């Protein structure tokens, strides 16, 4: 299956960085693409991580993301460990949200659902413990916490 089409420069740089780290940290990235879904970056990380990962780049001055309900549901039904990465203004900073955190926020309504996407904004609905300021911190968390 071909790689998804990624046009956001922050997301493109994030994917490149993750691929470089994968070579060093003994894991691989393969696209996890559902037919008809070609515009999101979603990957299976195999090897030392072994989980699904979906990444989104923020839009706007304040971090704002549109997280597809379909992706959350597909990940939850996959039977695998998974997490969502919300990038904030660069490819090196953002939030690594484990599945449990995502499900709690979506099921409680803290992230409102409109037109099939959850509206996520920086602020009180994002727990600061999941924030990373450096790309190496993200990779360390992936490797040591098993997707938290």
Shape-level CATH architecture: 3-Layer(aba) Sandwich
CATH secondary-structure class: Alpha Beta
Backbone structural class: alpha+beta
Chain-averaged pLDDT: 86
> What is the strand tally?
9
Number of domains: 1
Tell the overall outline: globular
Q: Which secondary structure elements does this structure contain, and how are they paired or packed?
A:
Elements: H1 9-25, E1 27-31, E2 41-47, E3 51-57, E4 64-68, H2 69-77, E5 82-87, E6 94-98, H3 99-107, E7 112-114, E8 117-121, E9 131-132, H4 135-145
Parallel strand pairs: 3-5
Antiparallel strand pairs: 1-2, 2-3, 4-8, 5-6, 6-9, 7-8
In short:
Helices cover 31% and strands 30% of the residues. By secondary structure, it is α+β, with helices and mostly antiparallel strands. Strand 5 (82-87) and strand 6 (94-98) form a beta hairpin.
């Amino acid at each position: 299956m071909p790689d998804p089409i990624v046009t956001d420069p922050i997301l493109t740089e994030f994917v490149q960085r993750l691929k470089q780290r994968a070579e060093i940290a003994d894991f691989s990235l393969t696209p996890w693409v559902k037919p008809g879904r070609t515009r999101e970056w979603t990957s299976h990380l195999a090897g030392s991580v072994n989980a699904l990962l979906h990444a989104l780049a923020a839009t706007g001055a304040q971090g704002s993301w549109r997280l597809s309900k379909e992706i959350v549901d597909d990940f939850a039904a996959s039977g695998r460990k998974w997490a969502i990465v919300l990038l904030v203004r660069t490819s090196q900073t953002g939030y690594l949200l484990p599945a449990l955190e995502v499900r709690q926020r979506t099921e409680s309504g803290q992230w409102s659902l409109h037109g099939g996407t959850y509206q996520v904004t920086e602020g009180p609905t994002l727990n600061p413990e999941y924030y990373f300021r450096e790309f190496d911190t993200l990779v360390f968390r992936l490797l040591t916490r098993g997707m938290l």
